[in-house]
């Protein structure tokens, strides 16, 4: 039978949370809580968006995990949070916790891809309405938004460079919206484009940056703010290029 | 009538975003509600000719307070509700207009709009900070002095 250590459990929990888009202060807090409930009252954890460090005591050897890929899966964050609560309450031992965490780590997305695509499409068209667009632009924004989101996921898998994927996706949204207007299928190009680029907006990054800065995690907060800013700049540049050409 | 239309649209938009971010199914409806609450506050204040920065600040405070309550209630991390609520308030339209004017070399129009985007983003951040402070004040200070030192068989509450 496999044996797990508290360090492994702690690092695994931290890794899943950070990869799924939790705030760094929550990651550190969870890791320390887990260690404390297993009796290591002086455990130390340090998390940045790209790495986690953990030691069971100040003078013990420090363990280190690199985080290479980050995505957004708040369901996993919630589940790890629940596991951490269960450990604090004394309902799980080390092995059970490790098994549960591994199961969470291997989970697929909560929603299938086509549901997410549909959600992005509905969000786009609703944003068009919210920015005072007319209901005539509901359907064009729906189609353009879905295309933009699909292209975004496609470019993201293909290129591995996030900012460039966003740049290409927003550029495609601009061109597609322009052609819809040309063929008389849409009315206000501005409203369609604004609605369609909203699913690409780095909302989670902005929120996390603010919350990390508030919690005193200046390094993580600034890094995330920089990432959010670069993403926004990439989206803006994509649209700007389309305006230059057309 | 316009309010109902806007409320409906913001509910769908916020819930759609929640799905994109893989929010647990059980709280999908609540995410939509938080987004709707923030956007309705913003729209109502805007229709009363309140400045958009103030309207955004008020809306984001409301979003953050509701998020705090929901996070306690459903025992989930607070960012789930924060993200869904904040998304409709993000100044996407103003940012787009600013960028468009920049591209057209119309800097006189672009700079005020860009400044507006910065102000609106700051208002959102400030709203989140406010509610955090309120939450900590409630948690730390208010109740302690009303507790009897010797209740629970002489054990102090922490």
TrEMBL record, chain A:
One of its GO terms (molecular function) is transmembrane transporter activity. The chain crosses the membrane at residues 114-132, 167-186, 192-210, 222-245. Signal peptide: none annotated. InterPro entries: ThrE-like_N, ThrE_Dicarb/AminoAcid_Exp. The keyword Transmembrane applies. It comes from the Bacteria. GO terms for biological process: succinate transport. It is a multi-pass membrane protein. Belongs to the ThrE exporter (TC 2.A.79) family. This is Uncharacterized membrane protein YjjP (DUF1212 family). It comes from Streptohalobacillus salinus.
Automatic annotation (TrEMBL), chain B:
It is a multi-pass membrane protein. The chain crosses the membrane at residues 6-23, 53-71, 78-98, 110-130. It comes from the Bacteria. It is found in: Cell membrane. Residues 6-134 form the Threonine/Serine exporter ThrE domain. Keywords: Cell inner membrane, Cell membrane, Membrane, Transmembrane, Transmembrane helix. GO terms for cellular component: plasma membrane. Pfam families: ThrE_2 (PF12821). The keyword Ubl conjugation does not apply. Its main location: membrane. Belongs to the ThrE exporter (TC 2.A.79) family. This is Uncharacterized membrane protein YjjB (DUF3815 family). It comes from Streptohalobacillus salinus.
